[in-house]
Amino acid sequence: MTARMIMKLRVEAAALSTPKVLHLTLVHPIRPELPAWEPGAHVDLRLPDGKIRQYSLCGDSADRRTYEIAIKREDAGRGASRWAHDALAPGAVAHVSAPRSNFRLQEARRHVFVVGGIGVTPALAMARRLAADGADFTVHFCARSEPEAPLLPELRAVCGDRLQTWFSADGRRFDPQLIGPAHDACLYVCGPQRLLDAVRTAAAELGWPEQRICAEAFQATLDENFKPEPFDATLASTAETLHVPADRSLLEVLRDHGITMPSSCELGVCGSCVCGYTEGVVIHRDAALSVADRQDKIATCVSRARVSVTLDL
Amino acid sequence: MRDDETRREALAEPQATRPAPKMVEAFEHAAGSIARGVPGGATGFRGVLLHIHVAPAASYEMEELREAECVAGRGIVGDRYFDGTGTYSPKPDTREVTLIEQEALDALARNDPPLQGGAIALAPGDHRRNLTVRGVPLNHLVGRRFRAGEVILRGGRLNFPCKYLEELLGLPVYLPLYNRSGLNCGIESGGVIRPGDAIELLDDADA
Fold it and tell me: InterPro entries, alphabetically (chain B) (predicted)?
């Protein structure tokens, strides 16, 4: 993964899209154009204490002047969203990285989106591009209720009758079978893990091939029962072997030995700390890598190995 | 809550937790110490300081300053290498101040030589060097003392383009900047510099 420039952007507008979701418009104080991005991309937001959080860009990728992000206030979260809601008023400065794309539109004749809650953010940007291109797409938007559905007016304006809303408060629940058959289509799922799981299960039953499903978890896989075991990591370039104890991550051990990998979320979501491996059985625990990438790449912050692994470092 | 207190918090820089950087004195650098004893190079030039840029921490966009305080043995106040928060701060080297020639940037902008797909127009500061200068033969100044305004600099080694810069910019600048990526300097005598300051050689080799 690549290093990205961090910019001090000015909050041009800050509005509550729902009582819990802050919709921000960011501009560069000097440059007329921000770095270009593809729909589905995200940026890092840096907090004053140095922590980093990822937010998908939800604005118009054709508008080079502004970035838009939407931040859900998580009162039980790790504090970043509370800070953002309190501090990022119009005129404030937000430290934001250039965008990175882990989640992209694919070549397909038809595009089906299933999004839940704040997972709407990348889908809004992607749907905007598809609408501009005159592509065939459908967006299923799941939320508790209409007033709690973030960016709903924007999504309606972009999608028109290609949007189907599923508000549980109205007794309407999304049936994953509605994604339909797979032929010539690509499926995009973003939202909480349980939505991803339900849609993946239905997609498998309907015969969707794995490579036609793009999913973006808005939190990394939580497997409470996972018990980390120690393992050894060998560096291909020097043949040096590092021991990774059960209570430490591969990323931390690499850092201790002076190998500073780029890293960001350290939750297995952003893909910053991914590196290649050539030998070994890897226990993938991230939400960033595709099945194909997992053959030779490892997210060093959360993933581990059985007994040993040889890293392409 | 949108009071001034939180606004100030929003403006705060990330906390620098790393210690002050260890610098290699320019004329003790492996390159600078050799060049110091070898005569040659351009003399009699009078160049000019065009821009001053600093970045508050690693990967942060460079910001232009209208004047800057240079501290001997340390760097430019407000820059990541002054604070020890730069990408390469953990590796001791000569990087108190870095300079680049406007002429090299002009060459990139006209795709000369044609080492990449096309012309590369770098916005001021995107090269991530501190001082952009015109009329100063930087490749001749390793092992030399020269002044920028009231500040005395010592050329320690040639700057080397890094893949990290390519990644940050998303532009293939590595090869085109090779051998004209500028000069890493130490500060012999500090002071305040401003764009427009004259840049002149102070002495020749120590031979």
Answer: MoCF_Sase_C, MOSC_domain, Pyrv_Knase-like_insert_dom_sf
Burial class (CB in 10 A: 0-12, 13-18, 19+), A19: exposed
Pick among A1, A6, A88 to test the B interface (most B CBs inside 10 A): A6
Residues of A in contact with B17 (CB under 8 A): 50
The A residues from 9 to 28 touching B (CB cutoff 8 Å) are none
Which CATH number applies to A6-97: 3.40.50.2300, 3.20.20.140, 2.40.30.10, 3.90.1170.30?
A: 2.40.30.10
Phi-psi region of B140 (alpha: psi -120 to 50; beta: other; left: phi over 0): alpha
pTM of this prediction exceeds 0.90: no
d(CA A212, CA A187): 6
CATH topology for the A231-311 domain? Ubiquitin-like (UB roll) (3.10.20)
Domains of chain A: which residue ranges?
Answer: 6-97, 110-217, 231-311
Domain boundaries, chain B: 18-203
* Comparison of pLDDT for A107 and A270, the residue scoring more: A107
Put simply, the chain B residues between 85 and 114 with a CB less than 8 A from any chain A CB are 87, 90
Q: What angle do CA A177, A179, A181 make, to 5 degrees?
A: 95
The answer to whether residue B3 scores a pLDDT higher than 60 is: no
The domain at A110-217 falls in which architecture?
A: 3-Layer(aba) Sandwich (3.40)
Residue B1 near chain A (CB below 8 Å): yes
- pLDDT (tens digit, 9 = 90+) per residue, B145-167? 999 999 999 999 999 887 778 87
Give percent helix, percent strand, percent coil of chain A, each to the nearest 5.
25, 35, 45
Asked if residue B7 has pLDDT above 50, the reply is no
Most A CBs within 10 A among B61, B66, B89, B169, hence the mutation to make, goes to: B61
Cis peptide bond prior to B39, omega within 30° of 0: no
ipTM for the predicted complex: 0.78
pLDDT in tens, A239-296: 999 999 888 899 989 988 888 888 877 778 778 889 999 988 888 888 778 777 888 9
B9 CB neighbours in chain A (<8 A) are 48, 83, 87
